[in-house]
Amino acid sequence: MIHLLYSVILAEAATIMLLLFKTPLRKLVIAGLDKMKQGRGPIVVKTVSATIFVVLSSSVYTVFKFTRRGDVDDGAPADLNPTEQVLFAKHLLEASLMGFILFLSLMIDRLHHYIRELRLRRRTMEEAGKKTDVKFAGPEEVKAREMQVDTFKDMIRHIESELEDKIKEASYSEATVEALRKQSEVLLLEYDRLLAENQELRNRL
């Protein structure tokens, strides 16, 4: 299951990177996200998210139950036996990965929303500009349209500012993914060590 969670995180991180930079693949990703938000797509996404959240809650509860049994030492409660320490490390890693999957899913949804909103505003501005060029208007109407254009420009600047904030958050998320990957590698090594110790204790028994 851990390998599956890693695959999902890498896929979500790749999707965020494609949304951040204007490339031909970005259009394909946006088109795919548009289709996912149509028909039964939202129901499927909500169902999967709810399932992950339930499993995450179960893992967090298990970790909390282990931590209540004693003081925490080197990442796990000190008075647990080797088997319980292995289970503690496994549940902690799974909870971290599932929480990050939900966070990256939210980031993808927000980035997709802001990109579509920015495109819609630009298209509206272009259509307003074409109408102004084609149709002759009086001074008052020209002034009113200039005010409308200024309003659209302010809205675009605001949306672009929000998009830049989201891009910064996505960059921070990527750094967090790398840190989490290193942490998981350490936990996996600890997991293998505890398994070996557990097997050795069973052999002695």
Entry summary:
The chain is mostly helical. It has helices at residues 2-20, 24-36, 41-67, 82-134, 139-204; strands at 72-73, 76-77. The mean pLDDT is 80.
SSE topology sketch:
Blueprint: H1 2-20, H2 24-36, H3 41-67, E1 72-73, E2 76-77, H4 82-134, H5 139-204
Structural class comes to: mainly alpha
Number of helices: 5
Could you tell me how far the N terminus lies from the C terminus, measured between alpha carbons in angstroms?
A: 30 Å
Helical content stands at: over 70%
Largest beta-sheet details = 2 strands, antiparallel
Kindly state the number of beta strands: 2
Overall radius of gyration: 25 Å
What is the assembly state of the chains in this entry? Answer: single chain
Uncertain spans: none
Mean pLDDT equals 80
